[in-house]
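To: structure desk
From: M.T.
Subject: fold request, one chain
Message: Could you run this one when you get a chance? Sequence is below, nothing fancy, just the single chain.
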Amino acid sequence: MTQWQTLSTPPALAGLYAKAALRQRVTGNTLPDTGLRCVLAPDPIRLGAYRQLCGYDNDGILPATYPQVLAFNLQLALLTGLGFPYPLTGLVQLAERLRLHRPLGGVSRVLASVSLQRLRPHEHGAVFTLVTRIDDALGLLWEAEADLLCRQAQVEGQSLAEPLPTDFVGDEVARWLADQHIGRQYARVAGDFNPIHLGQAGARLFGFKQAIAPGMWALARTLAALGPRVPTAACEIHGQFLKPIALPSEVVLKARGEGDQGQFSLTGRDGSLHLAGYWQPLGEPAQIF
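Reply: Done. Structure tokens follow.
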């Protein structure tokens, strides 16, 4: 059972990144049972910059991906806490699942909660799930699950391979350039200063030839381009991050379906599949690509 700790204010990013820099090795293989909670409120200036960078309209509805940014300091505090056994640097996001319970309009003060679940083996290390929940005065508003891979970790058990997407046929919706600066621009509005996104030197430290685009920026840019095709409430959105987007690169968004359910993909000019996903009504079984 999760033991909740309530913070009066979210911790500052500078101190959290300083703590992250001190942890460079695996110190165990057990996730902490502590979760963090804090009352948060969207900052209009930061939100406006996020909308502009990701292509969202200023329609009074929070972008479906924005609560992750809102709760980022809280997430980072959990992942740099004494009980967390893995280095923050080098973690790779494999998937994101969003659940929009009600429309994200008129959001002011909310209670954000973050916790860790489901540590399990992976062919390239160990995977765990970072769970984020947003509640308002009426109850559960939004929640997300992010699957994160630590390549340095090993846990016992049988590694279950994630199903890979099959050939996708859809109509082209949009294409855009993920330029060489997008990682640094996203860091300024989202707080995600992962070195693999900031430049070639940092990316090479973790085995990449050049900087790669943040996965959550790619998902946000995709959902913004899909616009009204995707419902703003009573909806689940699943995204699977596949081949990283090397910067700079042109990417192509394709989709099929609208309303209750549909699928999307983000590919490179050479056909490489970077992101695949779908949306569907809340509570339905997960789709197999």
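Reply (cont.): The two ends are 33 Å apart (CA to CA). Let me know if you need anything else for the meeting.
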